[in-house]
Amino acid sequence: MELAIIIPLLAAAVQSGTPILYATLGEILTEKSGVLNLGVEGAMIVGALTGFIVSRSTGNPALGFLAAGCTGALLTAVHGVVCLWFQGNQVVSGLALTILGTGLANYLGTSYVGLSAPGFSPVELPILSSLPVLGPVFFNHDILVYLSYLIPPALWFFFSTTRFGLGLRAAGEYPAAATAAGLNVIGYRWFGICGGGFFMGLGGAYLSLAYTHMWTTNLTGGRGWIAVALVIFAFWRPGRAVLGAYLFGGIMALQLRLQASGTQLPSSILLMLPYGLTIFVLVLSSWRKKVSEEPGALGVNVEPVD
Predict the structure, then answer these.
(1) Most CB atoms closer than 10 Å: which of 97, 127, 151, 255?
(2) What is the count of structural domains for the chain?
(3) Do 73 and 198 form a contact (C-beta atoms < 8 A)?
């Protein structure tokens, strides 16, 4: 009886955590290059709207998913223009990006509120879905969840072993030394910003194309801010980001189930659970800062070399 309750909750944690995982991995990629982007929420919600509109217009959710990533990259490129070309404050620019993206998506999406669009449905993986416990928890989801399983190890491999990945980390750690070694620090940072924005847009598209299959105002519901906090919790490691995303996804799934079960707890208290956990994670991460892998030049602007 306990497994009958726990397994669906764990499966819901994976599904609820997937959009947060996409966004967190995108922010890790951006911050590894030395750029702080607080516009994750804006990139996610613009990606969610773009994916929804393209999928509804074409009937092709895969095309909508790809378009959402491209839109996320395009929006975060505005952050790149401000920070890399004009040497603007990265914190202020990121906050402005969130305000811009949220306002733009809610305005342009007004006529789509309550409408549905073709999306992704669960696909059971042969053999794996039949495994006890692990099967229903991890292998009875849509294709976008399965894709999210592959990205963290791919990012780890990229950062740890590839020449371009090591160059990107150098741009975030020691930009002066990287420049002296002949690396194009600005180019690496552009890649980090736009590549990270692509993943953020994918995270938003998951909400509209797989999680809800519809559009509502403020669809992301603060998940972008949770992703920013998770980067710190994960110590900029893609593997730890998976654990953090599923932990937050589990809290979100739990509070929805508590509300559905008619608990006597006020709904406002339940809605606070994910964000209360966010604060706890930030406090815990600050306490353990000595083991942090924060890029040495995170948030520090670098002037272009002529």
Answers:
(1) 97
(2) 1
(3) yes
